[in-house]
Every structure is written in structure tokens, then in C-alpha cells.
Amino acid sequence: MAELTTIARPYAKAAFLYAKEAGALDKWEQMLTTMAAVARDATMHAFLDRPQLDDAAKVDAFAQVCGDVLDESGRNFIAQLARYKRLSLLPLILALFHELLAEQQAFTDVELISAYEMEDADISRLVDALKRRLGGEVKISTSVDPALIGGVLVRAGDTVIDGSVRGRLNRLAEQLNS
User: 85 and 43 in one domain?
Assistant: First the structure.
């Protein structure tokens, strides 16, 4: 994974610097999100791996699937990635771009995973507490995992706060077994 990150980092940095200079960070984040989703698609991946396709055909197909989300600069970015056989790195490029964006805008990505759909008021209270704890703005994404039984699992970068019932039961089982 470290090798792929090393390969993807210059592309992410170039995209970030270009987007920043053009004042289009949000647009580029949206384009890269779409590009990464297309690159992850198994059908698209199989199509792009066909040896009879040249780079121009790959770029055209990729751009056609991305639709109106892709502008000319995004299409050029895809062309460079296709030229050097790097289209499969798009999900990693998106992640690295997002890290640069978070650093630039001084926010922390936080994933809230709960056992059931959370109320907006509960999310708001958690966001306020996380802002105080992490010392800055937070960008929240939520998901539901019924296997947690109850409570919330919070992931913010390398920090994981496990307030789930499943996590508590696992810790209790570890204590009883030791």
C-alpha cells in the first residue's frame, strides 16, 4: 500500500494545487469523487483493462460515464492517468486530495457509526463535543451498523472512540478471559 500511496501522492498534490490556484477545490473534490467511484466499478475496471483499447478510447469511455461532472481540466487529468496506466489509483488519489483539503481548510473528517439512525439533535450534540475534543471544525459522515447493538463508534483519523455496546461487551470478555 505504501508504494501505491507514493505513486498516487504526486497526482493528488498536482490536482490539489491546480484546483486551489483555479479556486475550484469544491469542484475538483466533486470530480475526483465521481472519478474514484467510476474507477472502483468492477464493470468499468474490466472494460478499461481490455488490451485492444488505446488511451484515447479509455479517456472517452471514462469521461462519458462521468458525464457533466467532468470539465476539460478533469478530462485532461484522466488522460494523464490513462497515459501512465494509473486510472486504478483514483480512489487513493481522492483520499490524498481530501487529506490535503482537510489540512488546508483545518477540518477533521469524522465518521459516526451507530446501531440505528441518529436524530439530528443527537448528531449536533456529538459534533459540538467533537469540535471541543479535536480542537477544530469537523466534517461528519454517518452510517448505520446494527451489529453495534447500541451506542456509537466514532472514527476521526487515527482516533477511534468506541462507545458501542458491542465494544463494551468485547472489552468485558477480554477482561474475563485474562
Answer: yes
What pLDDT is attached to residue 14? 95
CA–CA separation, 19 vs 12, rounded Å? Answer: 10
pLDDT value, residue 1: 52
Residue type, 123: I
Rounded distance between C-alpha atoms, residue 137 and residue 89, angstroms: 29
Q: Are 104 and 20 in contact (CB under 8 A)?
A: yes
CB-count exposure of residue 134 (10 Å: 0-12, 13-18, 19+): middle
165 Cα distance to chain centroid: 27
Helices (H) and strands (E) in the chain — how many of each?
8, 4
Query: Can you give the residue range of the structural domain that contains 61?
Result: 2-102
Instruction: Classify each residue of 6-38 as buried b or exposed e, where b means 16 or more C-beta atoms within 10 Å of its C-beta.
Output: eebbebbeebbeebeeeebbeebbebbbbbbbb
Among 52, 82, 102, the domain-final residue is 102
Give yes or no: residues 96 and 26 share one domain.
Answer: yes
Show the low-confidence residues of the chain (pLDDT under 70).
1-2
Report the number of distinct structural domains present in the chain: 2
